[in-house]
Design a protein that fits this description.
Chain lengths: 269, 356
């Protein structure tokens, strides 16, 4: 019974979070006239026409592929580099290491718009505007401090005796990382992958600045359908619901990893 | 198997010296325990032997080889850690086989060695479990199994039993000793628990503040501690230290209490050491005001005051006493230790068998 108030709070929280999603979904299956009718019309004829129109007729699947390419590369690169850097920083107890960590944090605090402009100038100078590498490099740069900090917090939990033990067993530094540290923080690694993926997948500002027609990503493409003309709103709602699905599926697959405890059994307790 | 020689070994962190010229000769097959209070340098010394810490000065030899600059895996040693340090993502089998897998030992050979270690440690039923599915004692055995499969020249143990409950600790103590008797591998074992040291070791090295206080067999340390530190560290409850002076062949406290002294004791300020178990009831003895009585089963520890100085006696028999009563005790004179009040060193006595 004690849990009832908590339950109510969580329920309210869920309602607050799900309302826009439900609203978006309802908008996507109604005619614009019905969607924006005042008072709201509760009875209408649902249609998936807009979903079909946006993904197939308007060719949004191409933007999804662009987003996927950029996201997969950006996540793979930033999580690999992030894990290795975090491992080193979690084991070095020097002033330089903590200095580096805090400078990373400072970089994380830069507003994205502040970075977008130089990124644009640089990309233009090296002729990479509207190319995958430009987007991937920019997102990796943006995401790197975060992956390092997050991975480091997981790696810092690994008892140092395990590393001593690995050295005694004959591990090289790379083997200690690859065969001892990384498997132990695997749940944390998945969390880092998820957050990095969300950042890359949802990235709007950099994509707006760095992409044109060839490598345009979904968030930018959808935004273009939001104009004053309300006839577009059902289309952009359909796209928004669509953009959510891959992440939702990914989350469902990851659930097991996300909740699993870390390093249980390595040390007593 | 091999001997281990520690020669003038020093350790400092930047300018701060924590170990000051330590010398130990460990024979092939010997079970040596490094014991001392926390911060005495015993674990650091073990880690230096393992190769996990650099050596600032001196040499460490395994067999005839100076290993100062040899990396841990090439030293042919295995170590058991306090927190077991089992890899949580590997099964018991994988944990035990890991070192062999890394150096690409033949698969059949790995299987044979793991099976042998599992048999020695009765772990056969647990080989496919993960560490978190095991009890503390089982984890400890896996940690030992991991050491055994490597068939090393030297076993190192770093406080392996301190995370276990009291009963299991006693059981594992016996298991480790049996293991050593069976494998006869040179073993260096670190503990802060003097009972572990006394019960398991061939020889004990008592360390304090980065120095060796005394090296000897358990009974040598018990019977003839070289100084006040060793005398106080070995034995539980600890040895009584009573301050006073020797005059005319008697030991006198400031309260005017007189205790018998061994023959040959020179006059002067001394610390009179007598173990609780060497105090016996005697109607003609000195009076002790009993403050606390602690029965342990086989004996009863009686805490009290001798004049103004605290004293504890371990009584095996005799009439029961209660707090608030007076008890007359005397020291078994052949068991009395005398220490120089200024230096804390053991003073020679005329008792046969007691070296100075």
């Amino acid at each position: 019974m004690k849990q009832v108030p908590l339950f109510i709070v969580l329920l309210l929280f869920c309602v607050m979070n799900l309302t826009p999603v439900a609203w978006g979904f309802l908008t996507s299956i109604r005619q614009p006239v019905d969607a924006f009718a005042v008072p709201p019309k509760l009875i209408f004829e649902p249609t998936f026409r807009f979903h079909w129109e946006i993904w197939v007729d308007k060719g949004f699947w191409r933007f999804l592929i662009n987003t996927a390419i950029v996201s997969i590369f950006a996540v793979t690169i930033s999580v690999s580099i992030g894990s290795m850097a975090a491992y080193a920083l979690s084991r070095l107890r020097s002033r330089a290491a903590s200095g580096l960590l805090f400078s990373l944090l400072a970089m994380r605090m830069f507003p994205h718009i502040l970075l977008a402009i130089p990124f644009f100038v640089i990309a233009q100078a090296v002729n990479l505007i509207d190319s995958y590498p430009a987007m991937i490099i920019a997102i990796v740069a943006l995401n790197q401090p975060f992956t390092i900090w997050l991975m480091r917090s997981f790696l810092a939990e690994v008892p140092s005796e395990l590393y001593d033990s690995a050295v005694m067993d004959g591990c090289t530094p790379w083997q200690t990382f690859r065969r001892v540290a990384l498997p132990i923080v695997k749940p944390g690694l998945w969390v880092t992958v998820l957050f990095s993926l969300l950042l890359a997948y949802n990235e709007f500002l950099l994509a707006l600045v760095l992409t044109r027609t060839n490598t345009k990503t979904l968030p930018v493409a959808i935004a273009e359908y939001g104009a004053e003309d309300i006839t577009y709103w059902s289309l952009s709602a359909a796209a928004a619901i669509g953009i959510m699905l891959p992440i939702l599926i990914f989350m469902l697959f990851m659930q097991r990893h996300l909740v699993r405890g870390m390093a249980a059994g390595a040390v007593k307790g | 198997m091999a001997s281990v020689t520690i020669r003038d070994v020093e350790k400092s962190y930047s300018e701060h010296a924590v170990m000051h010229g330590v010398n130990i000769d460990i024979e092939d097959g010997e079970f040596v325990i490094l014991v001392g209070p926390s911060g005495c340098g015993k674990s650091t010394l073990l880690r230096m032997i393992a190769g996990l810490e650099d050596i600032t000065g001196g040499d460490i030899l395994i067999g005839d080889t100076v290993v100062n600059d040899i990396e841990p895996k090439a030293r042919n040693i295995a170590m058991v850690f306090q927190n077991y340090a089992l890899y949580p993502h590997m099964t018991v089998r994988e944990n035990m086989a890991f070192a062999l897998t890394l150096n690409r030992t033949d698969k059949a050979e790995i299987a044979r060695r793991v099976a042998r270690a599992a048999e020695i440690l009765s772990l056969g039923a647990f080989l496919d479990r993960y560490p978190k599915q095991l009890s503390g004692g089982q984890r400890q055995r896996v940690a030992m199994g991991r050491a055994i499969v490597r068939d090393p020249q030297v076993f190192l143990f770093d406080e392996p039993l301190s995370n276990l409950d009291a009963k299991l600790r006693v059981q594992m103590r016996t298991e480790i000793k049996e293991l050593h008797q069976r494998l006869k591998t040179t073993t260096i074992y670190v503990t802060h628990d003097q009972i572990e040291a006394m019960t398991m070791a061939d020889r004990i090295v008592v360390m304090n503040d980065g120095r060796i206080e005394q090296i000897g067999t358990p009974l040598q340390l018990y019977d003839t501690p070289a100084n006040l530190f060793v005398a106080g560290f070995i034995g539980s409850p600890g040895m009584n230290f009573i301050e006073g002076e020797i005059e005319n062949g008697w030991f006198l406290t400031a309260d005017g209490i007189a205790l018998p002294t061994p023959p040959g004791a020179a006059a002067g300020k001394v610390v009179y050491g007598i173990r609780p178990e060497h105090l016996v009831p005697d109607p003609a003895g000195v009076p002790v005001d009993v403050t606390v009585v602690e029965p342990t089963g086989p004996e009863t520890d009686v805490f009290g005051k001798l004049g103004r100085q605290p004293i504890v006696a371990a009584m095996r028999e005799g009439p029961p006493v209660a707090a608030g009563e007076k008890l007359r005790l005397t020291a078994r004179v052949e068991r009395v230790h005398l220490f120089d009040a200024a230096t804390g060193r053991r003073l020679p006595t005329g008792i046969p068998g007691q070296a100075a």
